[in-house]
Amino acid sequence: MTFPAFLFGSLVAILIASVFHLIVGGNLSKYITYLFFSWFGFWLGYYISIRITFSVWRVGIFDIGINIACSILVTLLIYWIDKGSDENEDSKEKD
């Protein structure tokens, strides 16, 4: 993989995390968490797309369809896990 391809993939992952954060809201620490896990999900999708022969939307060396799907799924999973911690903090503040 070339450096420009790595930058392009990271840029797509940052865009996904930024749009997700814009939709769900939150503070800076949540945004950084979404950035990291979106990036992780994108590169997990890259690894999966190399291992399987199914292709959704090929752009250069990336199968962008699978990469974006994995990035969104991982980010949604982290949002779902993190949402439970917010509810616990809110209940502690009310007590």
Mean pLDDT: 85
Order of strands in the sheet with the most strands?
Answer: 1-2
Instruction: Count helical runs.
Output: 3
How is the biggest beta sheet arranged?
2 strands, antiparallel
The low-pLDDT segments are none
- Report how far the terminal alpha carbons are from each other: 53 Å
Please tell me what the overall shape is.
elongated
Query: What is the strand tally?
Result: 2
Kindly estimate the percentage of residues that lie in beta strands according to DSSP. Answer: under 5%
H/E element order: HHEEH
The residue fraction in helices comes out at over 70%
Alpha-carbon Rg, integer: 15 Å
Helix/strand-derived category reads mainly alpha
Describe the structure.
The structure is a single chain. The chain has 95 residues and is mostly helical. The protein is elongated. Strands 1-2 form a two-stranded antiparallel sheet. The mean pLDDT is 85. It has helices at residues 3-24, 28-51, 64-94; strands at 58-59, 62-63.
